[in-house]
User: Fold these one by one.
Assistant:
Number 1:
Amino acid sequence: WLHRFESEALENLTARYFSHYKLKADTTFVSLEQFSHPLYLRLFCEVQNPERQVEKEVYVGEQDMFSVFDSYLDLANREMANRANKPSAGRILPKMIDDLAQRLWNDNARRLSFSEAVELFDGKTLASVDWNESVTKAALDAELVIARDVFAGEEGISFTFDLLGGYAVASVVSHADLRRFRRVTRVCFPEVTHQSCNQDCN
């Protein structure tokens, strides 16, 4: 479910997500194209009504993608801190994302090997880390931020969502060499448009 929704199914799938998250919205005259990426649709819904206790009215189109990312990362940081028994004020997850984005930027890479990621996040080797207490495990349990997968026979860690990965890289490199930034994001995060790059880097 990492692929874009087909246009004919988008309206029905959006309605199903909104119903599950108890979101009320008039989508008659707005474009649902922003929800064509299933992970973004879920991020949006999580941010708008994470508890799903009562119905909440939302206005589709008022939220830009990057503000949704920021809000979701704040939410995920609190949940991750609870899992790792650490104070949420420490902003553990944002630091991990920054560290991963910086490393991927430096290496012109899309993913880190699993062992490298554990050392980066926990400051310990894979052999010495207490996995159940590790921040790496807590971040993976957040599901929508980083993912553990196998590529070319090697287990690795990468951003779950290309647009989120591109946004994270843009945030850490800021006013760095823009031409190199565009080249790296085009290769590593193809869903990031030049327009998005310009918005983050200006």
Note: Residues 191-202 have pLDDT under 50 and may be disordered.
Number 2:
Amino acid sequence: FSVSFVGILNSNGMPATGRISYGGDDAVKGLTAAYNAEDDTLEYSNGDVYKGEVKHLVKHGTGTLTRENGDVYEGEFYEDRQHGQGKCTYANGDVYEGEYENGNKSGNGTYTWADGSVYTGTFKDDLKDGEGTHTMADGSSYTGSYSKGAKEGQGVYTYADGSVYEGDFRGDQRWGSGKYTWANGETYTGEFQNNTLWGQGT
């Protein structure tokens, strides 16, 4: 994307105070920001405020971005995007702490919902993807594989009542071969489809 600056330069010929205009990239096209090099702040026209390291008039390095909607990100930036290690505290009470790539949650991290639910594992493009454990507020939990935000592959789901399913998942559902153990100790081993027992089993 492109960046232009209108304002006052310091004695070294570098921008000191003024207004920055961004263009080229749809995500920032038409956005402007008031820049103050003395206190390292960018106050954007959309209501967002950034305080931290700046390079070539964009967020780059370590800083804090407070969004107009109340979300707050503290961590690393690379060429204006959240990239590296960071922590985002959302206005609704949710918190994510972990790795970012090109503005998205990607890599290892922990997402804690306001209701107490917690997911710890890998992310890709803002979605659970890879291996992880999700513990729900009601005490149930899932440990296993994810793909694009859904349970996919091998996993173990422990229900709040103590029942346990261990086996295949597809599209966030029990689907394939698995074993279900009820809280009373009874078991079923066999096929599942659409979250239900399917066909012959033991």
Note: Residues 129 and 147 are 5 Å apart (CA to CA).
